[in-house]
Structures are given as structure tokens and as C-alpha cells.
Amino acid sequence: MGRYSRICLRAVLGAWLAGQGGCSSSNLDLENQAYGHGEFAQAKQYQERALDNAVDGYIELGNQAYQYGKFVQASQYYEQALASAKVQDDREGEGMSLYNLGIIYQDLGSYMKALEYHKRSLAIAKTLNDKAREGKSFNNLGIDLRHLGDFAQAKEYIEKSFSIAKALGNRAEERNSLSNLGNVYLELSDYAKAHQYLTESLEIAKALDDRAGVSDTLNSLGHLSKELGDYAQAREYYVQSLGVDKALGNRVGEGICLGNLGSLSDIIGDYVNALKYHEQSLAIAKSRGDRFSEGIILGSLGVVSHDIGDYVKAREYYEQSLAIAKALGNREGENINLGNLGDINLEQGRFQEALASYNQLNQSPRLGFYNLRIGDFDQAREKFQASLDEAELLRDANLLLAEYLGLGMSYEGLRNWRESIHFFQKAVDLMEIQRAQLDPSARRNFLGGKIFIFKRLEAYEGLARVSLANGDAATGLYWAEHTKARLFLEALARKESGNGLSLPAALETQENQVNTQLASLYKQQNAAFNAKNTELFQSLEPKLAEAKREQEAFVAQLRREQPAYAAVAYPQPLHLENIKLKANEVLLEYEVTDSATLAWLVRDGKIVKTLTLPISRKELSQRVEDYRDKLVNKSPYVELSRSLYRDLVQPFAASLQPSDAVIIVPDDALALLPFETLLEDDAVAEAAPTAAAGDTRGGGRIAPPASAAPDGLRFLGDRLALRYAQSATALVQTRQFHEPAPTGGKPLLVVADPVFNLADARVTDKPTLLAQADTQRAREAICDWSKFHSQQGCFEQLSSTDSAAQRLAELFGGAGRADILKGFEANEDRVRQHLQQGYRYGVFATHGILAEDIPYIQEPALVLSLVSPGGGYLAIEGQGSPGFLTLSEVMGLKIPSDLLALTACNTGMGRNLLGEGVMGMGRGFQYAGVETVLMSLWSVDDAATNALTEQFFSHLREGKGKLAALRQARAEVRGQSGHSHPFYWAPFILVGEP
């Protein structure tokens, strides 16, 4: 059903084939080398010198071609061996040739032909009373029948093979039979027996020091864990198998393991590693001339490209894979690629082409995808329901999730809210179990990962939509919270877990009882699944649901009575009653989904108003992108600004007063939208009362100079004080864990005007040749990015920040009171040391980069001095990132500051991870302990930035609150000649406390 969700392990001939022909080891080594370089004529010469018997010679040539993936050539040699054996009446050679031809067709996916050859091989083995070959033939007949779906007969044949191996004392073949029995039970979804046989196989392999057998069985155990949705355990097995194959120098096995890791990475949404693993696997296959594996891996690369939305590349990979499958007669590969191409056509709106592919496959879920996309929800429901029973019986985690999501969407389309919620909830329950088993790094992309055509996140978004449609706004908000900042919350909880938090004895006992009961029921349900005891499994479902409700009630009690402990032990999104805001705060939270945009306005623990806007994620993203382009390029923006205001803010305008502290929780593309720049309707702006004088925390209307508001334009930021949070839960938990900055420290640290390149006049010693080649490669990567931003080809010097830093320092008492790190001193080591000393405020006046900008960094970062006083470049590829203060490095620091101003370009932006939102530097500094972060949403003008920064800190020095200081500074910059366009004054936003 899935798209190359795993790379099948081929039945490698192994030691038995390699030792059949009587070839000396020295000649065999020479042949291996020759085949490894594609020199088949030379390999044949080695064989002809080593062998006199034509049958054995052709078999050995076939074996060597097989080992290097030359299946067609191998089959030709085996056919020649078969013909020679018949002429010579060599029954043993005939049986071996038939057996090997069966292996070839097995690997090509032609299992009926493989079955025919293995039956003929078995008959000859019986005639010759060759029990060893008889056992091997039974084993491979079992493999053929397993792939043909005859599991009962497959099991019977493999058990016969096992009995023969045991009678002969052939432990190696015994292990092989146990492994194949495990794979049969895996197909039967009898996971307990599959695990039993695979574990026994692994024990024998270890006892025999059969490392190839160890690797083979570890891979099968990895498949088992993946089918069960235990992705962390699956990865562990694959990594162990890869280590064994590398130690053996087994390039075939290494390629298979890399492919397995690539497919697993794709399943959990880790697309960067998925591409990396598959590309490494493809390189191995191509180096060996292994067309079969090449076809599989191309299909896998197509899946990853498909999942990240690169349809052009995905289609190219699928078509290449399909061509290879057709050329090799691999029907299974053909079907998989047809299904994948159908999925792409469906997602691109080519409905008839998609239907044509799906009709060839006759797969109910995929036909359900088609009906869902064309809006035939009743037919979609029928198709998904038809295959749900099979999916639940098989307990295929990915197929189950697709069925649950499909049914949730089908019932949503039918406006059957109760059933829709039921199936979306089942999808969420399954994913939360899977996600909890992953290590923190593997969770990074999990919710954004795709299953067939569905993103996992769609279950949470569906629950938010349907709950709101069903009149349950609070529950809708709760599910919207699940799509934001989950990793951030869990990281905060891990950071605080070592602070000695504990519960009173009575609550600790209750916690143990609640969690033990829930764990026990999960274990019983797993056992019922494994035993295929449907009746027991179904009877446990209501008990499990009740146990979950008890746990939720207990956690709710902890959040009331022991909030600090609950935040650490249960870092889950909060329900409405636990979202505690301050007296004058209102929360405006958005949720962007594929079919609609939702919003909630929260005040005093109550939802004041909600919004369901029929604007899709795709449409909204395009509108925000168009608007940002107009702002960044200083183009006319009024019409688009007003339309965004009318859709996103106007429905709430009557409930928002200038005295309110408005906290916006954006989602998806909205995280890149400066709401302050949206133009209000005149009636709303004129009717709004002005806040009382003396409000220094940010409230109150900021009246812009007339020159800054041509034609009477009124911006939302003029009337309302706006700041931002990653999620309501993140806001509350950050407050829960925040430690006030220590008193008595210096007031200000400024990092300014670093040295970026050798052309800088401050570099007096300029070597003509860089000492290290990898330094040069890193440098080239940096320049490749920055040449788009500077005429110099690398990061340009920010000389104006030097004088700006001096003026800022003077505001806070000058030298001795404020510290400036500039030039060579603005290097990573000095900056890290100073940040942790407890300055009240900090300013980074330097360049910033995004996650995708420089290949070997791959995360947001601030650019510091890249050159040493001696004229050498600091950044060395593969040895960290000297010269770049990265997001992950920031999160490893402890920075007890009230505010950091990141005046670099794009510091508020980062990679938009579904389920996390934009991962900018601001979140990293908040995690490190900074209360508030001022950061930018686009590349900024130097003069306007310096002016705004100086005005901002001047107002802070006067005693204004952070938000009030920012709003006043914006208004003053807007009043300067030529700076009325939002490009100059609007890029900076405030995240955190006002």
C-alpha cells in the first residue's frame, strides 16, 4: 500500500553461492575487483583460467555478475550453465542453475517464474537425495509464496527447510529459515511470533559469528518495529545493521541499510536526512551497476521529493524508477510507481490521470483519496471504510493513520461532526504514541511528515476545524495549540527537569496509579493485537479511553495545584482554563489549515469571539508573500494591506481597545506578517478611545506625524500595542520558568562591526594562500550566499554600526558601564562569554542568516567575526561553525537578560516546520533565558535601523516599557524624511514580555 516505505531485503546468495564453483580465493578477489570496476571481460578471463568445467564456469560467472547487481547478465550465464548441464547430463549442475535462476527472478519481483524454477530445483534435489539443496529450495519456495500472498503454504515450506537444517546440524541454514519464518509472520501481522523467530535467528547468527546474518536479521527487526510504529527502535536496528555491514565491507548490505534509514527518515518527516541516506545508497548501487537497487532508490528519492512538495523532481524520479522496473520485469516496482505518479497527479489536480493510475491498482484507500479530492465525500467514506477493517487487522501503522485521516475528512465533508472528531482523534492518539517514542531530534519534523497524500498535522488541524464548527471553541483552541511550538515546550521542560521538582506523597502515589493503569492497558491492548484477539482488543478500548480521561483530569489537577511540576512532567498544550493571562492582556491566536483559516480571541480566561475564514493555507501564504514583497521592495501596498486587515483583524476590531496588550499567536505564513502595518478602516480608527496618559508598558494610541501617514492612512499598530508569542502554552510556560535577570550587572552589551573578510582594512596580515582546503570550501559557501546581498561578493562591512554602538553605550554611562565587542573582538568565543555575564540589555548589530542559506550550517545564525587578526578564516567545514552564533549554540547558553535586540537581517525568520512554526533566533534566546527579543522580519535599511535602535533604547532609558519604547521609536522613524514607507520602520517585532 505504501510508497516505498521500506526497501525489501533481497535473498542474497551469500557464502553458499560464492563457494560452489571451486574458484580459488585469489582469483575470486581479482574477479571482484574487476567486476567492481565494470570490467566484465577481464573478470571472465579470470574465471576461464580458474575453471575447466563449463557448467561450473558459467555458474561462477553468474554468481559474480549477481553480486554486482548485473541480473540480466547473471541470468544469461545461468541459462548457459543450464543448457550445458543438460547436454552433459549433469543433474547437480542443472539443479544449481535452476535454483540460481529462481533467485534472479525473485529479486526481479517475478515470483511466479521464481516459483517455477525453485520447484524444478527441488525435484532434482529430491532425486539426488541432496538434503542440503532440498532444504534451500524449500526455503526459497517459501519466500516466493510469501511474496505471492500464500502465507500458509510459505510457512509450511520454510518449516520443512528448518527441519532439514536442524537434522543436518546446519546452524547457518537454520538461522536463515528462522529469519524467513519471522518475515512470514510479519506479513501475517502476527508480531509476537515474528519477533520470536527473528530474535532466535539473531541469537544463532551471533553464536556463529555470522555477521552478515546478524545484519540481515537486524534489518528485519527494523521492519517489524517500523510496522508497529516504533520508529525509534526501528532506527536503532537499522543503524546497528549498517555498522555491521560497514565493518564487513559489505557494500550491498550498506546500501540496503542506508535505504532503510532513508525511508524511515522520510516517514518521520526528517527530509534532509532522508535525501542524504537515499543519495548515499544510490551512489553505491550505481558504482556496482546494480540496476534493480537503483530503481528502488530512485523511487524512494521520488517519495521524499514528493513529500517536500518538489513535484517536478518527484515525477522525474518516479518515471526513472518506473522505466527501470519495466525493463527488469519488476511488476511490484511498476505498481508502486504507478501509485506514486497517481498521487502526484491527484495533488496537482490532474484527476483523470490519477484515476487511471488508481484503477490499474484497484486499491481502496487510493480511490478514497481521489473521491476526497473531487469532493465526493460519501464515496470517499465508503472506500476508506472498506479497507479500515483490513488495516486494523494488519495493524499497519501508516495504513491505519491514512484510513483514520481519510475517514475524518470524509465525515467532515459530510458535516457529521461526531464521526469526524472520532476518527481524527484516533489518528492523533496513534501519532502521539509514536511521537512519544522518538528521541527529541527525531521529533523535529515528525508532525510535518506525510503518510500517502496526508500530512500528519492534518489530524490536529481537522480537530480544530471540526470542534469550532461543532460549537466547541475551547476544544478547537486546544487542538490548535498542538500545532505550535511543541519542541520548544519539551525543550523547556527538559531544561527544568533537573531542578529537583517533586510532588507531595499523596499526589505522587496518585500519579503512579494513574500512569501505571494507563501503561498496563496499552500493554494489554498490544498483546491482544499480537494475538489477533479482536474481541479482547475492542473490549479494552473503552477502558483505555476512561484511563486517558483519568490521566487528563489528574494532570489538570496538577496544573492547578503544582503548576511548575506539571509543566516539566507533562509538557503538553494547555486547555483554555490553564492559559493564564495578565489583567490587560488579550490573546489573538490563528490556525492556518489546508481548507480554512481559524482564529480565537481570548480575554480573562474566556473566548470572546472566533473566526472561520474560508481561505486556504496556499491562498493565504501567497497573499502574505505578495504583501511582504511589496514592503521589502518599497512598492505600493495599501490595497493588499487593507484586504488582509479586513479578513484577519476586522472581525475582532470592536473587541480590541487601545488599552489592551494584544498578544498575537500567528501560524504558518502569518508568522512572517507584521500585523502593525495592516491598514485599519477609518471608522474603526476614529471611533477607538485613546488610553489614559502615563501608560508606559505599550498601550495607548501612538499618533504618527502627518508626513508619516499620507492620505490619512491609519495602521493597526498606531491604535493597538502588539507583540507576539509562539503559542499560548509557550507564553505561559516561558513565564513559569523565567528567572529575573540579576541586579547589579552592567546595563548594556553591544556586538557591532565584525570583520567578515580579508578585504577589510583592519586585516593587516593577508596571506596569499589559505592554509586549509576545507576552510576555503567553507569560505566559498559563505560567499556564494552573501554575493546576492553585497557587491563585494562576501558579507559587507557594517561600518555604520561602530558609531551607533558608541552612541548606545553613551546612553547607559559610556565605558565602564556598557561594553562593546567590535572588530576582531566580536568573535564567537568573546560573545558567548559576555552574553552569560548578566547584562540587562544586549544588541547584535550584525548580519543574520536563515536555516537554508549556508549549506554546512543549516540553521539560523548571527554572523560574527570570520577572520582572525592574523588574516586566517575561522570557519572550517566539519569542525563546528566558528564565526557563526547558531540557534543550537544559543540554546546551550544561559543568558539572564531582560532584552536582546537582534538588528540583523531576517533574525525573526527561520525554517517553517509544520507543527513548530517559524524557527527564528528569537525562540533560541528565549529558551536561553532572555525575557524579550526584538527581531526583524526582513532585510533592513542600515540608517533606519540605527535610528530606530537608538530611539528605542533612549526611550527604555527614560523608563518606558519595551513595547511602548518600540512603538514610539517606530513613529519617530516614520516622521523622518523619506522613511514613511513601512519598509523602514516596520520590520522589527517584539516577542516576549512588554
Task: Classify the secondary structure makeup into a structural class.
Answer: alpha/beta
On the 0 to 100 scale, the average pLDDT is 80
Indicate the proportion of strand residues: 5-15%
Largest beta-sheet characterization: 6 strands, mixed
Strand arrangement within the widest β-sheet reads 9-8-10-14-17-18
* Overall radius of gyration: 33 Å
Shape: elongated
Task: Give a summary of the structure in a few sentences.
By secondary structure, the protein is α/β, with parallel strands linked by helices.
Throw out a few tags for this protein.
994 residues; alpha/beta; Serine Threonine Protein Phosphatase 5, Tetratricopeptide repeat; 5-stranded mixed beta sheet; 18 strands
Structural summary, described in words:
The N terminus is likely disordered. The two termini are 52 Å apart. 59% of the residues lie in helices and 8% in strands. The chain is built from 42 helices and 18 strands. It has 994 residues and is α/β, with parallel strands linked by helices.
Fold blueprint:
Elements lengths: L13 H5 L6 H12 L3 H11 L3 H14 L3 H17 L3 H17 L3 H17 L3 H17 L3 H18 L2 H17 L3 H17 L3 H17 L3 H18 L2 H17 L3 H18 L2 H17 L3 H18 L2 H17 L3 H11 L2 H10 L3 H18 L2 H17 L3 H21 L12 E2 L2 E2 L1 H13 L3 H9 L4 H11 L8 H26 L3 H28 L1 H7 L15 E8 L4 E7 L2 E8 L3 H16 L5 H11 L12 E5 L16 H6 L28 H4 L1 E4 L3 H10 L10 E7 L18 H14 L13 H12 L6 E6 L4 H8 L5 E5 L2 E2 L11 E3 L20 E3 H5 L7 E4 L8 E3 L3 E3 L1 H8 L3 E5 L5 H16 L4 H13 L7 H4 L2 E5 L2
Helix pairs in contact: 2-3, 3-4, 4-5, 4-6, 5-6, 6-7, 6-8, 7-8, 8-9, 8-10, 9-10, 10-11, 10-12, 11-12, 12-13, 12-14, 13-14, 14-15, 14-16, 15-16, 16-17, 16-18, 17-18, 18-19, 18-20, 19-20, 20-21, 20-22, 21-22, 22-23, 22-24, 23-24, 24-25, 26-34, 27-28, 28-29, 36-40, 40-41
